[in-house]
Amino acid sequence: MANTVGVFWLRKKAVSSILIFCAWNVVSGQIRYSIPEELKHGSYVGEIAKDLGLFFDQLSTRKFRIVSQVPSQVFNINLQNGVLFVNKRIDRELICGKSLTCVLPLELEIENPVEHYRADVEILDVNDNSPSFLNPEFRLEIAESVTPGTRFILKAALDPDIGTNSIQTYTFPPHEHFDLDVQTLGKWKIPELVVKQPLDREAHAMHRLTLTAVDGALPPRSGTSLIIIAVSDINDNAPIFQKPLDSVSLKEDVPPGTLVMEVNATDLDDGSNGDIAFSLGSYNEEKILETFSINPKSGQIRVKRKLDFEETSMYEIHVEAKDMGVQSLSAYCIVRVYVEDVNDNVPEVILKSASNTVSEDTPVGTPIALVSVADRDSNRNGFTDCQISPDVPFELKRSLKNSYKLVVSDGLDRELAPEYTLIVICKDGGMPPLSTNRTMNLKISDVNDNAPKFLQSLQTIYVTENNTPGNSIGSVTAFDPDAEGNSQVSYRIIEGSVQGNPVSTYVSINSYNGIIYAQRSFDYEKLKSFNVRVQARDAGLPLYDGNITVSVIILDQNDNPPVISSGFRNHNKTTVPRNAYPGFLVTRVIASDADSGQNARISYKLLHATDPNLFTISHGSGEIRNIRRFKEEDATIQRLVIMVKDHGHPALSVTSSITITILEQTEQLRTEIGDLHGDLQGASDLAFYIIISLGIVTFILLVVIIVLIIVVCPKEKQAPCPASCYLANCCCSNELDSKIRTSNSHANLQIVPNSKVIGNVLDIRGNRSLSDTYRHNVRSAPEAGKFEVIYFSPVSPATSSSLRRDI
Question: What pTM was computed for the model?
Answer without folding.
Answer: 0.46
